[in-house]
Amino acid sequence: VSDALRTLLRGRGYPPERLLTVRSGLEAADVGAPEAPGSSHRGPLPQARPPRVGTIARLVAVKDLGLMLEVAGHLRRTHPEVQMIIVGDGPEGRRLETLAAGLGLKGTVRFAGRLADVGPVLEELDVYLVTSLFEGGVSMAVLEAMLRGLPVVTTAAGGVAEAVVDGETGYIVERTEDRDALAAALAERVAALLDDSALRARMGAAGARRVRARFTAERTAAEILRAYE
To answer: Which segments of 10-91 are extended strands (E)?
Structure first.
């Protein structure tokens, strides 16, 4: 479901001529929908509300949401009013809440839990953030965020880095051994977007176009049919 997974399988000895990459895609009803009502707010931030950064993810170790909390700590130094919204549940939930409290992030980070409809939360955000160690496929949540006009800041986490184009639809940050430097680099990219409404709007629009052109369920189905044929 991604070139990253294809490379991993090749490294484990699978014959490359028998590997075919077919990426996931969004349904036509979503991709072909008119611009989401909240997409117009990708311009200047309304004065009445703080800047908001968030993600939708299972609360599991591979998502490295502890890193996201560290990013929130860095961001708060330059953007004291920033809010970080984390949607999802999982076995890491209690540990992450304890970590957030220990980092003094009460009032900055909100754990929204699992939601049946994530649309309203995406409409609240200004930047979508991914801190995963690895993503085997192209994250559907990332595609939904991009379709709604959100620029994405992400680690170079497998399939996610195949959806996001660095410098065009968001930013991709390579992992380093220095964790604090990584958190600071991610925070710097997010801050640049929060501070520049034109940049947010331009990258958000480019992301929506990319999803409509490359990540549709119809394209996925056609590629699967070709594989069977």
So the answer is: 52-56, 83-87
pLDDT at position 38: 43
The single-letter DSSP state of residue 48 is T
DSSP 8-class letter at 41: G
Q: How many of the other CB atoms lie within 10 Å of CB of 161?
A: 23
Written as six digits, the tokens of 108 are: 């900055």
Backbone angles phi, psi at 85, to 5 degrees: -115, 125
Residue 165 has pLDDT above 80, yes or no: yes
Secondary structure of residue 121 in the 3-state scheme: helix
Do 150 and 129 meet the contact criterion of CB atoms below 8 Å apart?
A: no
pLDDT on residue 79: 96
As a whole number, mean pLDDT of residues 125-135 equals: 95
Provide the sign of the torsion angle of the four alpha carbons 123, 126, 132, 136, taken in this order: positive
pTM across the whole model = 0.90
Please list the residues that pair with 26 across neighbouring strands. Answer: 216
State the pLDDT confidence band at 37, using cuts at 50, 70 and 90: very low
What would the two tokens of residue 85 be?
Answer: 């919204």
Query: Could you tell me where the DSSP H helices lie in the chain?
Result: 3-11, 28-31, 65-78, 93-102, 119-124, 140-147, 160-163, 179-194, 197-214, 217-228
